[in-house]
Amino acid sequence: MLRSLRLRVAIVGVFLLVCLFYLLPNILEVKGALKRYLPSDKIRLGLDLKGGMHLVLDLDEHKMRENLLDRKFEALKTILITRGVRFLGLERRGEEFYVLVREEQREKLLDVMRREFPDLTSRGVRREGELVGASFTFLEKEMAHIKENALYQALETIRNRIDQFGVTEPVITKYGEGQILVELPGIKDPERALELIGRTAQLEFKLVDEENLKKGVPDTPPEGTEILPMRVKDREKGTVETFPILLKKETVLTGELLTDARVRFGGEFGNEPYVALEFNSEGARIFDRVTAENVGRRLAIVLDGVVYSAPVIRERISGGRASITGGFSLDEAKDLAIVLRAGALPAPVKVIQNITIGPSLGQDSIRKGIRATLLAGILVLVFMVVYYRVSGLIADLVLFLNILYLLGAFSAIKATLTLPGIAGIALTIGMGVDSNVLIFERIREELRLGRTIKAAIDTGYEKAWVTIFDSHVTTLITACVLFVFGTGPIKGFATTLILGMIINLFTAVFASKMIFDWMVLRFRPKRLSI
Hints:
Elements: H1 2-27, E1 44-45, H2 47-50, E2 52-59, H3 61-82, E3 87-93, E4 96-102, H4 106-116, E5 120-128, E6 131-138, H5 140-165, E7 171-175, E8 179-185, H6 190-198, E9 203-207, H7 210-213, E10 225-234, E11 239-248, E12 253-254, E13 258-266, E14 272-279, H8 281-293, E15 299-303, E16 306-309, E17 321-324, H9 330-342, E18 349-357, H10 359-413, E19 416-417, H11 419-448, H12 453-485, H13 489-523
Parallel strand pairs: 1-19
Antiparallel strand pairs: 2-8, 2-18, 3-4, 4-6, 5-6, 7-8, 9-12, 9-15, 10-11, 13-14, 14-17, 15-16
Helix pairs in contact: 1-10, 1-13, 5-9, 10-11, 10-13, 11-12, 11-13, 12-13
């Protein structure tokens, strides 16, 4: 028995040392060479404790479908020309693509569509005099798949932007049907973060329509052109104004071919921040061709429907490098570079819920949560000592050990503590007390039956074990469900409960039994104070 007891003391002691090791940054500030060998992260606080932003975003499904249909239409036109299908008409009618060909081109058209566009289905082929008209649209299951992919693409894009923005421990996850939940603990500039997240960041390069622009910007743009606002900054006043500019509708290059975007300093207005762009090999080839064919013309750089600059192409530009200027501040240039590097959202997002929690509110929540937990803990500790005497003192010691293990586990796995998480700690204390009460009542029953102290303790633990195990496992299953399907604070509560139930089983049974065994072996009491 002595060897078994020593082993159990060693196990409890090792776990205690490991927990204290991970809790060290929360107790004192580690400096110097020790920082290389000791953990440096404190227990992380959630949004409700640290303050920050809570956003629910809705992906604009209508705009996403429009963007997808526009891209598919351009791809369809390119493929039909490349494969030698001589069509007499090609247009988009809502969500359908209509192609008009002569009878002899019918089979070739259908064959190209089957091979090149398996995600499109035919809506019928009908004669129109000597010609044949064919309609195609997306398969319903394909559209549902595209919608799901768009949501996950938006999630990944927003996550990349937030990571580069420098927010620690953000929560970015799917929320409901087609919505995204974003929680940013400790954010200091919510307006800037909102601008960064919500930007679609669709980068396009378009030629300025110089011929028609000589007559002024018309009220109605000629066919094949569009009027967009151009952003111009007055460097003396520091104000930004917009005026209309006429562009060719065709996009000659998009941000999809971008490989990097960085903030640089310099340019024609001195040491001013601008965004330097680099394209992949395909983008470099296209940019080289476009600049070679349009020397002397202006090339507009369009981001989310706003022209940021429209420099004159002085010469052919090889190497796939370009730049966006516009009198940016350093933060504006940094944010623009971030959204371009992270990629464009598949569609605009709308903010349907925006809650900003100030750090003072978070501190108030911490104080109230800790105060409530301490009060509940003190009342429980006093009750256990009054009602169960020395055995109650052992239970209190085990509860203290339980909390140390729990906080150490939080630090070790870098979990986030939320206000519901503090409630979870209080619930864990309650479950620990309940376990001890079950054990103590069983021991009392055995003592009334006339068993020895050692036999009563062993039998009491043995009989209480099944009940304790069942209650903890059912609570653990519930906590796991909350963790999988919950978000933010709910997930924080579930994390605390999962760790608490596992630790409770160890401390309430293993650790407390170890103390009782040590007490019986060391002092050999004639009567148990319970």
